[in-house]
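STRUCTURE:
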């Protein structure tokens, strides 16, 4: 009321500009998306990102020899491999999120007192993982530099997760990155566990 201006400038902006600013990881754009819009696609986006990741892993398991016989048992075994990759990707992502929540609760227990705080942070983390959708063009345009591209996608998703934590809980960068770091440690622990069990991850 005192300045006669909107508190959130993105209310007046076109959705395309808001999306561009979110891709550039601007905190104010994240704040607008999380608090001033009614986006309710976080669950669907999460499942779709997991499907993309599972498909990419499944493709890496495929042999160069492809048999097109519909009665081939190997073909059905490969289909089960996709479901297994989806389960592994889900467990890894869940362990990453659990690592973040445990770290934040341990560092700042007052931040996650209520169920609504927990749900808001979970929504923010799921929405900020939208960078995993870049796995689709990485799969379509298979090139020799695909591992480098996947590393860039991973870094982009981690930066987005960090911004989501900062905006949601009003934390500084260091605490947000510490939570991300411990989430990665727990996720890598799950990967090591699967590898010791003899599963391809």
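SEQUENCE:
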């Amino acid at each position: 009321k005192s300045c006669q201006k909107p508190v959130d400038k993105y209310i007046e902006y076109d959705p395309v500009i808001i999306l561009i600013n979110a891709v550039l990881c601007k905190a104010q754009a994240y704040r607008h998306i999380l608090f001033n819009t009614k986006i309710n696609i976080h669950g669907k986006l999460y499942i779709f990102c997991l499907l993309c990741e599972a498909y990419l892993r499944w493709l890496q398991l495929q042999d160069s020899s492809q048999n097109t016989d519909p009665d081939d048992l190997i073909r059905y075994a490969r289909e089960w491999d996709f479901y297994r990759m989806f389960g592994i990707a889900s467990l890894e992502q869940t362990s990453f999120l659990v690592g973040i929540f445990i770290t934040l609760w341990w560092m700042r227990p007052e931040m996650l007192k209520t169920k609504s705080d927990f749900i808001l942070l979970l929504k923010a983390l799921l929405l900020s993982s939208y960078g995993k959708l870049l796995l689709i063009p990485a799969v379509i345009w298979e090139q020799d530099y695909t591992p480098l591209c996947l590393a860039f996608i991973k870094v982009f998703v981690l930066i987005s997760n960090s911004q989501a934590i900062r905006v949601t809980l009003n934390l500084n960068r260091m605490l947000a990155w510490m939570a991300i770091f411990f989430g990665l440690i727990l996720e890598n622990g799950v990967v090591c566990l699967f590898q010791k069990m003899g599963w391809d991850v």
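REMARK: The chain has two domains: 1-38, 46-197.
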